[in-house]
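Need residues for this backbone.
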């Protein structure tokens, strides 16, 4: 039984994340998508709402579990007996950050390997930041995020 961890801030989960998650779920027996804390980002969506949105977005993926963790990703991976981390790679601009994170994780725990899945071209430009910016200006984000996320953000920005 090979388990992989897919960590991220998912603020919110996008169709790009979901595509990476589905492909990882095709490769591994089990994938745990973990909402983690990125100390360099301020989260807009509360943790419980992120989890609820991810659960709704991936409810048809039977070998996917949704969880959260406030600590080092490698500690979470060890706790779950997983030695693979999944990350999506969009453009070259992602590479430096991802390489640094992967190397830092493997320096902390040499048994942990990061597997990168290249984003499909149609999702290449999508980021959680872009989605929030468009939603804030009342733009249509339905092409970029799963339906529950679009509804959630629209409601959140309308209510203020
Ligand atoms: O979606 P993001 O913000 O690029 O994800 C980054 C994340 C949350 C995976 C990363 O910041 C992380 O692993 N945070 C948990 C703390 C940790 O393990 N930090 C060391 C990684 S170098």
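Answer:
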């Amino acid at each position: 039984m090979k388990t992989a961890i897919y960590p991220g801030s998912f603020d919110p989960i996008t169709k790009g994340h979901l595509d990476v998650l589905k492909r990882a779920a095709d490769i591994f027996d089990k994938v745990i998508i973990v909402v983690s804390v990125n100390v360099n980002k301020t989260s807009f969506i509360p943790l419980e709402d992120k989890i609820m949105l991810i659960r709704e977005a991936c409810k048809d993926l039977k070998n996917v579990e949704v969880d959260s963790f406030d600590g080092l990703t490698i500690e979470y991976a060890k706790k779950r007996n997983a030695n693979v981390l999944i990350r999506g790679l969009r453009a070259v601009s992602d590479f430096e950050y991802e390489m640094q994170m992967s190397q830092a994780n493997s320096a902390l725990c040499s048994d942990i390997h990061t597997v990168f899945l290249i984003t499909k071209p149609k999702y290449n430009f999508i980021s959680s930041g872009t989605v929030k910016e468009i939603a804030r200006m009342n733009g249509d984000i339905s092409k970029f995020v799963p339906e529950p996320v679009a509804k959630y953000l629209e409601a959140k920005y309308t209510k203020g």
